[in-house]
Structure prediction request, 489 residues.
Amino acid sequence: MSTGQVRVVVTGLGATTPLGGDVASTWSALLAGQSGVSTITADWVDSVPVKFAAFSAVDPTEVLPRPESRRLDRAEQFALVAAREAWAHAAIDKVDPERLGVVVGSGIGGITTILAAYDTFKEKGWQRLSPFTVPMLMPNGSAGWIGIEVGARAGVHATVSACATGAESIGYAIEMIRSGRADVVVAGGTEAAIHPLNIGSFAAMRAMSTRNDEPQRASRPWDKGRDGFVLGEGAGILVLESEEHALARGATIYAVAAGVGYSADAHHIAQPEPTGAGVMLAMRRVLEDAGITGQDIKHVNAHATSTPAGDVVETMAIKEVIGDHPLVSGTKSMTGHLLGGAGGIESVFTVLALHERRAPGTINVDDLDDGVEVDIVRDEPRALPDGQIAAINNSFGFGGHDVAVAFTTL
Amino acid sequence: MALTEQEILAGIGKIINEITGIPATEVTPEKSFVDDLDIDSLSMVEIAVAAQDEFGVEIPDDQLKHLKTVKDVINFIQN
Prediction:
């Protein structure tokens, strides 16, 4: 597992998700097979056909001081909470600011800010708009705030690739360190899009589950009865670091961020390519980039959104490129789909799975789709083997983006 | 009935605390918004809008830039 380039390692993890307000509570709920989905109680629920969502377990405004939260979009609030946890976890006492970067994106950006601000504008005029409206709605706002927080001057970037955003950010961060632009990069994804306009718009695509009588059973990747994804919110952030920098300061290393594979479907703006060609290309490229073989990969945190079209194609692609031996987990069955945040939290899960050698389960797979020919971890978590092993996190997004990120044990 | 300086000061202190988190007790007449309270220009806009709502006075942009200290704002509202 060596490619002769700078090795990048993971030294910090942060998350705020529908399962918990930090990494520890999220991970223990995930291993326990809990669902983060609940019924929508807001009065607007009557206007949309989907009556449930995976709300963050801890409201970020309860954690952040009010003067701070009032000038942040909810997606920025999640990002800052998760980034602070990851930064504290990495325990970096000293880093050259010109060697410190940030890559954090969001699929949609400050959509709830935009909509609320437009209401204010129409009702009260421009004079009553918050002067922070623009930094709240811009999709690079989270990256900007985190950059200010940690003092990152090597470059602050925000990738945007719908539901592949978090994974693409981590890939970009790996490349930023390898290219010599930075020693440390804070990377991940965030999203806060639970709003009737978004739910209505996704519902107009027939992309969302409408299992309104059983919300916690609605997100069911690979189950024959799956009928769409469940919208979630939150953020997942990693601190990535060159191995040399991490070793020099005696940091705890949780995994190696071994490589990234990108591709694009060039097929349809919102539907997966039916042969899985793009997905397979991303996975072939991540193997090449990480200098590993399919046999090294023992675990896949799949994209698996619980939509009829995408789930099975991904498993066909996994079987073709990697084989039928890895333990494949669909954690969106519990967290819901965090869109731009998905690749962030699922990379956190992939790192923890390697670190603890435990692949999380997939809930609600009552009746496995006949087209699935890989080893799905259903219900209980399963042990990963000893020795040096690898795992990948797949993330795909509207627009045809395919991203696979590889992690290995030390 | 016109508000007293103390009443205006208390109102401004509350607004600044809400917007910036600075304790209201630190908001005293002689303090400069930028140099002493470290308030940026975007937050000053928020404070001005909130003060307009609270005290029912219009603070035009060309006047806002002359309001350097807490005392300047108190005087503007009283006049």
